[in-house]
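Got a spare moment? Tell me how you read both lines of this record:
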Amino acid sequence: MMDKKTFSRRAFLKGACAALAGPYIVPVSAFGANDKITVGTVGVGPQGRAVMEMFMASPDARVVAVCDVNARRREEARRRVEEAGGGRGCAAYNDFRELIARPDIDVIHCATPDHWHVPIALEAARAGKDMYIEKPLGLAIAHDQALRDAIHARGNVFQFGTQHRSEANFRFACELVRNGRIGRLHTIRVALDASKRSPNFPPMPVPEWLDYDLWLGPAPYAPYTENRIINRYWWHISDYTLGFVAGQNIHFGDIAQWGNGTEHTGPIEIEGWGVFPEEGLTDCAIAYNTRHTFANGVVMHLTDDVENPMGIQFEGDKGRVFVSLGLIDAEPKSLLRTVFDPGEPRLYKSINHVQNLLDCVRTRRETICPIDQAVRSDTLCHLADIAMRLKRRLRWDPVAERFIGDAGANRMLSRAMRAPWHL
């Protein structure tokens, strides 16, 4: 499993496995300071490759296996890893279950289409692996909760792919808010891209280099067309995702939660509207406006970027701060020169999302975005989507994590999976 000191670690594991009936989670004492953490990447499209490169760049990690149902991508990723590793071998798999079953892999990185995130993460958790799971999390709140339960039961280290938490501007903006520099926070405005319309496309023969049935996995069967598996289309098909209400909002909504101090809870009321395409391949919301009210009185508005600039704006009774990709602004401008006093609370600091996970694999400390907070931020996206689809005000119990007095809304907390797949 490790490049060095494998005998002592395997000896430990042998004893641990004799004592435990279920999968083990390796304690820090089993890792030497110079051991490399072995990584398997599942899904090597653009995002998967980018994060895989970050693992490869770390002196603490070694990528030993890749997996993708697209044989072309799979072989390209395998070659890239082997070239970067000076000829060291890298296994390539079509089926993620074979990769996860390897006892010599410590960390699973999942960068598949969204509908696969929870099933793969569950398989990894049950196998005793630590993991980096791309955002958004699951296709239903109940799926997120099932993963949370599995991780709590086994103690896996979990990192969610909400990388903005590891970026200085976003952390600084949240610290300004949480330390009262804009006064009493009353409003948060989150603006995103909207999903896209598309025409229908005729069915096509499945190419020989693609395992299309495994690409679909737990999603309903649909005839193959090449555009179905391309990011700019599947990103907006509800069988595989919630559209940008999750794909982008999981980043900005997560930061909104962090700044509001509600990363361990959620709103108590949600209402809003959305416009959904009535025909074409894509069917996620192409325009939307939702309102989330929290128990502390803060109201979060989630809109497409027609109404507001893309990013997050925190508004208080003494000022405001706006943060987005690569920029931060504030009123008054002096807020941007803030130096916090030694006694003021600061947020968890990470400057590299991947390295944060690797450090926590060694220490068993929680990552900057652990499973509990990942579920809460993902829930924020689902609540917006459900409110838009039902077109009515919904009351939410953030403790029980269920809607209050609304059986129809509660039925939308879960989603069926195509046989033989299940949680």
About this structure: The two ends are 28 Å apart (CA to CA). The chain is about 35% helix and 20% strand. The chain has two domains: 6-164, 167-347+371-411.
